[in-house]
Amino acid sequence: MSPCEPVTLSRKPTNNPTPSTTLEDYTVSSNGFLPEHLPLERLPDPYYTPWESLTESLPVALAKQTLRDSVHCLPVLSTDRLSTEPEWRRACVVLGFLTHAYIWGGDKAAEILPPQLTLPLLSVSSRLGLPPVATYASLNLWNFRTTLGGNLTDPAALHALLTFTGTVSESWFYTLSVALEARAAHLPGMILSGFTALCSPLATLTTLQETLTEIAHTLASLTALQDRMHDHCDPHVFYHRIRPFLAGSWNMGAAGLERGVFYDEGPAMGECQWRRLRGGSNGQSALIGLLDWVLGVEHAPGAAGEGDYHREVKEYMPEGHRRFLADLEEAYPCGLRKMVGELVMADGGSPAVAAVKEAFDAAVAALGAFRNRHLQMVTRYIIIPSRQPGGAGQGVNLATASSARATSGGGGREELTGTGGTALLPFLKQSRDETFRARRLQEVQAA
Predict the structure, then answer these.
(1) Percent helix, strand and coil across the chain, each to the nearest 5
(2) pTM, full prediction
(3) On the CB side of 417, how many CA atoms lie within 13 Å of its CA?
(4) Residues 418-438: pLDDT tens digits?
(5) Which CATH number applies to 31-446?
(6) Is 100 assigned a ligand-binding role in the annotation?
(7) What element of type H or E holds 145?
(8) Cβ pair 157, 150 in contact under 8 A
């Protein structure tokens, strides 16, 4: 088979996106999963000044443990004055930070979220199609500014709009993820265009090989950029001061939320309920979901005690991003892995097909290396600090609960809990191993 010979696929897309469907329909911009324009730094309507004023002093209020009292003094503000999408996103950021600050900003976790936060948070979350909790989108995608003319791919040019601690470490932790998203901003469009081309009669092996090579190249760049976390994020500060605020209420019994959090809607009551929600996690990035899908990575439900976590976590993505992944998965099951597998089964001895298989293996290896590097960062930022003292007066939270397990001598290293409520190390190791398993093309052919 020649590199320029058309690719023949036995199974065409089942729901090929129509020409009228654009990335903008999925709120995917020229900046990828980041917004097209910089996020709002403040809600323009003075009506929302009480929220904005409190977030401006958030690190001080948390340090003095006055945040909860300040929230109790807030008026219950309506979301009716929010109009544009950037305003709704800004409100989501503000309310997400205030909610997590309220829950974790004391000697012990607050089990009841007051109406001042519950009511507007439920409204904003419903409008954006997100759960009422701080997510990757509100912590990272919609929470940054840049220096004039700054490059979004350069974390040194980025600053977080809101933080819990006011530290450089926390700002750097969020904005490095922003830079990673920006560095891969071309992938959604490239992959969508690539599949459209590959499913046409004129598709060639060269087209497929070039797409896979670019994915591998981008992943190598992301892995190198991920290493820059060490530049300005201190492991001790991250583990003991920042990470506790990122926790949700899922699997947080040891940290003080055995039943989750009760969302108090006040006299109206409505559907007041206890909720167990996952906290902010990079696993909620649609970019990670896109890479898993395009390389045909299959995550087994039920493993590591997490149920179908990778599918569930999509509910924590912005609605457009979630729909983008769902439509791609429906139209092109198993992504490029199925295409490559068909080619190998049909003509595995061809040098051109062998080159495509090599490019696919390199792309899978690059995604595996990215996950491996993340595991190394977990060791530096979570495992090691969990065995070190965090100082007096920390109260009960994710850091103190995890440290108690890690120093108990009963295998606590494996029992550490992620901010999303996962069994941290088993989950991450499983995700990495499932990534490398995508190279077994015969498995997807037999499915």
Answers:
(1) 60, 5, 35
(2) 0.91
(3) 26
(4) 776 667 778 888 889 999 999
(5) 1.20.58.480
(6) no
(7) strand 144-146
(8) yes
Question: In 228-368, which ranges are E strands?
Answer: 261-263, 273-275
Nearest to 160 by CA among 137, 180, 139: 139
d(CA 54, CA 286): 30
Cα–Cα distance for residue pair 316/322, rounded to 1 Å: 8
Say how many C-beta atoms besides its own lie within 10 A of residue 432's C-beta. 18
φ, ψ for residue 41, nearest 5 deg: -90, -10
Buried/exposed 337-367: b ≥16 CB within 10 Å, e otherwise: bbbbbbbbeeeeebebbebbbebbbbbbbbb
Say which residues have a Cβ less than 8 Å from residue 180's Cβ, sequence separation at least 6. 222, 225, 226, 287
Of all residues in the chain, what percent carry a pLDDT higher than 90?
A: 67
* CA 346 distance to own-chain centroid: 38
Q: Are 295 and 338 in contact (CB under 8 A)?
A: no
Rounded to 10 deg, the angle between the 115-128 and 85-104 helix axes is 140
Rounded Cα–Cα distance for residues 139 and 161 (Å): 9
Instruction: State pLDDT tens for residues 9-27.
Output: 444 444 455 434 689 999 9
Two tokens at 82?
């929010």
Bridge partners for 204 per DSSP: 6
Nearest to 75 by CA among 270, 266, 274: 266
Give the Cα-Cα-Cα angle 281, 185, 379 (nearest 5 degrees): 35
Tell me the domain boundaries of the chain.
Answer: 31-446
Return d(Cα 294, Cα 192) in angstroms, integer: 10
Edge to edge, the sheet with strand 112-113 lists 112-113, 261-263, 273-275
Q: What does the block give as tokens for 84?
A: 């544009």
What pLDDT score was predicted for residue 202? 63
Residue 32 dihedral angles phi and psi, to the nearest 5°: 75, -130
Stretch (H or E) spanning 232: helix 229-232
Q: Which residues contact 47 (CB under 8 A, 6 or more apart)?
A: 77, 81
Integer Cα distance of 212 and 145 in angstroms? 32
